[in-house]
Amino acid sequence: MILKINPQAAENQYDSSFIVSTIKKMANILPKGYVAELRSFIRRNALGEMDNGSPSKVSYYCPQCLKAHALKTAEEMNLDNEFIELIKEVFYIPSGHNGYYLDDGELIKV
């Protein structure tokens, strides 16, 4: 199966800085286990890293796959609908690719 990128999201495909900074800001209102899982997803699905001059490197990943995983994980953890709606607002892009997303090389149905 070929995963297609939404053309509207293509320019933001590898720009993770906004989403990562938003996750950090939301870390104090979201369950710690949930935030830890999102960070783990980013690490295990990094498409590459860029040295931005700081001690840590910036990981690039597919934000559509992260959104799909974030929503699926929220549902699995029985997070409140308020949190799920917040996640949908933060990720301003489609969820997954044609009903699927990749996690560590495995194709997962949304």
Written overview of the protein:
By secondary structure, the protein is α+β, with helices and mostly antiparallel strands. The chain has one domain (11-109). The chain is built from four helices and four strands; from the N terminus they run H-H-E-E-H-H-E-E. The chain has a two-stranded antiparallel sheet. Strands 3-4 form a two-stranded antiparallel ribbon. The protein starts with 16 loop residues before the first helix and ends with a strand. The model is unreliable at 1-14 (pLDDT under 50).
Low-confidence stretches: 1-14
Radius of gyration: 13 Å
Distance between the termini: 15 Å
> How many strand elements?
4
Tell me, briefly, the overall form: globular
Query: What helical percentage do the residues reach?
Result: 40-55%
Brief description of this entry?
The protein contains four helices and four strands. The chain has helices at 17-26, 32-44, 63-76, 81-90, and strands at 48-50, 58-60, 100-103, 106-109.
